[in-house]
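Figure 6 in text form: structure in, sequence out.
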């Protein structure tokens, strides 16, 4: 099973490629404020480097947080879009062994269908200005 992993909760983003439990390739980069500009090209670079296409991905694992609000939203938008468009399962987890846990869930045929980030606290909503 070819699995794409996504972690975007901090300035250093991570994209991984696994074949079942075996790490095939892993890229970390300083995405910070350019995550929305770099995440899709980084995924494409990872796939090209491994002679794969999007259609070869059979599951997505995403780190659910807590972490950067915007970073998590971008990562989840990409992960959920890939899951929906490719008709493949997506799972999210926030444990220290998030990849191992995610692989186990995918092998057990689990899917979150729509993965939702965990921000770690309630949002701070300010009153609108008059």
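Output sequence:
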């Amino acid at each position: 099973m070819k699995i794409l992993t996504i972690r975007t909760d901090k300035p250093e983003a991570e994209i991984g490629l696994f074949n079942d439990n075996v790490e095939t390739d892993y890229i970390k980069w300083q995405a910070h404020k350019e995550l929305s500009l770099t995440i899709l090209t980084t995924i494409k670079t990872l796939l090209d480097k491994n002679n794969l296409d999007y259609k070869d991905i059979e599951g997505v694992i995403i780190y659910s947080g807590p972490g950067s609000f915007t970073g998590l939203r971008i990562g989840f938008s990409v992960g959920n879009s890939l899951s929906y468009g490719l008709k493949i399962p997506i799972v999210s987890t926030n444990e220290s062994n998030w990849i191992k846990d995610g692989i186990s869930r995918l092998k057990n045929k689990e899917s979150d269908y729509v993965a939702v980030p965990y921000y770690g606290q309630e949002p701070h909503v300010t009153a609108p200005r008059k």
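Caption detail: Helices lie at 35-49, 69-86, 98-107.
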